[in-house]
Amino acid sequence: xxxxxxxxxxxxxxxxxxxxxxxxxxxxxxxxxxxxxxxxxxxxxxxxxxxxxxxxxxxxxxxxxxxxxxxxxxxxxxxxxxxxxxxxxxxxxxxxxxxxxxxxxxxxxxxxxxxxxxxxxxxxxxxxxxxxxxxxxxxxxxxxxxxxxxxxxxxxxxxxxxxxxxxxxxxxxxxxxxx
Length: 179
Prior knowledge:
By secondary structure, this protein is mostly helical. The chain is built from eight helices and no strands. It has one domain: Butyryl-CoA Dehydrogenase, subunit A, domain 3. Helix content is 74%, strand content 0%.
């Protein structure tokens, strides 16, 4: 069985094929939600952003040009929606990071992990929105600098600077918390 590439599916969506759109959503909805959840810290808001991202992709389908991977296009839409969301309101603080691996640690280890996750979440939430998105795409999603640059509509050099500033800020804020 031949697997149809995402870009080919998107071209079919542009022709009005909703089955192709449903397949794209099936393939990428968890990724869209995961990025939004890590950025926003709220599962319900992340769901809203992921849905809005796919609605915008559907609406823009007739104008779609496969000049980059579909995933890059999706990252860009989700990143913009997340950043716009934070401009409208303050970020929501949570006590846990999403999708932590449940290896059933002992209660003391679980408590330390929960505290560490809360401190990291707080430090991430304190970053400016573009820096936070770069950190999420680099360290949580594992994207390369070029992919991040395309997803955020900027240059690789700008991504490097944003990531450098974010690392410096995170290192400073997390080291102060440890003391």
